[in-house]
TrEMBL record:
Keywords: Membrane, Transmembrane, Transmembrane helix. Residues 210-234 are annotated as: Disordered. It comes from Streptomyces fuscichromogenes. It comes from the Bacteria. Pfam families: DUF4191. This is Membrane protein. The chain crosses the membrane at residues 32-53, 59-78. The keyword Transmembrane helix applies.
Length: 234
């Protein structure tokens, strides 16, 4: 048992450090975070203490209020931290790919399956809802990218539903913080084996990175070969 204590202490220290870093990051975008968390925690505790004194059990209700105050503070902190993170990512290149990479199990994501010279980009996610193409960039230009990608895929996955999403704040677009929710709302129409078959077909088709020609001549020192054309499974 004694050998496990240092590892547990290190894990707890790492967790605490992560919370502190998250708080600092959130505070840069949300100056009121400290006051809000203090208000939620103290307010919840105060309510339970008042109820406890009224019914003659201040100690029991105080302990319960303390636990619920901690829980409420953690929930509010998590939501405001998430909002701050999305606020900082909004409009940044590759932000949608980062959201897709953390969408959850059951999805296979492949970033940058299509791109143009203006850095407009299309990412692909495959799950039980079918294929979802997520575009970032100028709305008019990405429509051309989406149409070309759909045409290319139609030759090998014509029987799989394809959805497209344009990330942005304009009309008909989906905000970054709503991207995950939007994708999870698509109806599930494929079975697990069908998802696997679809991924295999798309992987055989390749993507932008795997189809990119390698430069001739010796490889520069320190440069690594890119990994295979498959996306990251979730």
């Amino acid at each position: 048992m004694a050998r496990k204590e240092p590892a547990a202490d290190a894990a707890n220290a790492g967790r605490l450090k992560q919370i502190v870093l998250t708080y600092k990051m959130t505070r840069k975008a949300d100056k009121m975070i400290g006051l809000v968390l203090a208000g939620v925690g103290l307010g919840t505790l105060a309510v339970f203490l008042v109820i406890g004194f009224l019914i003659g059990h201040p100690v029991y209700l105080g302990i319960l209020g303390l636990l619920l105050a901690f829980l409420a503070t953690a929930i509010v902190f998590g939501r405001r931290a998430e909002r701050a993170a999305f606020g900082q990512m909004e409009g940044q290149p590759g932000a949608a790919a980062a959201v897709l990479d953390n969408i959850g199990r059951g999805w296979t994501t492949t970033p940058a399956v299509a791109m143009n010279r203006s850095q407009d980009v299309v990412h692909r996610a495959v799950g039980k809802a079918g294929i979802v193409l997520v575009a970032e960039g100028n709305p008019n230009r990405v429509k051309t990218l989406l149409a070309a990608e759909k045409k290319k895929m139609a030759r090998i996955v014509a029987d799989v539903p394809v959805h497209d999403v344009i990330v942005g704040t304009g009309e008909g677009q989906v905000g970054l913080k709503k991207l995950r929710t939007t994708m999870l709302k698509f109806p599930r129409v494929l079975t697990g084996p069908q998802v696997t078959t679809t991924n295999d077909r798309l992987r055989a088709m390749g993507d932008l990175m795997s189809n990119m020609p390698l430069p001739k001549g010796p490889m520069p020192r320190g440069m690594r070969m890119p990994k295979g054309g498959g996306g990251k499974a979730r």
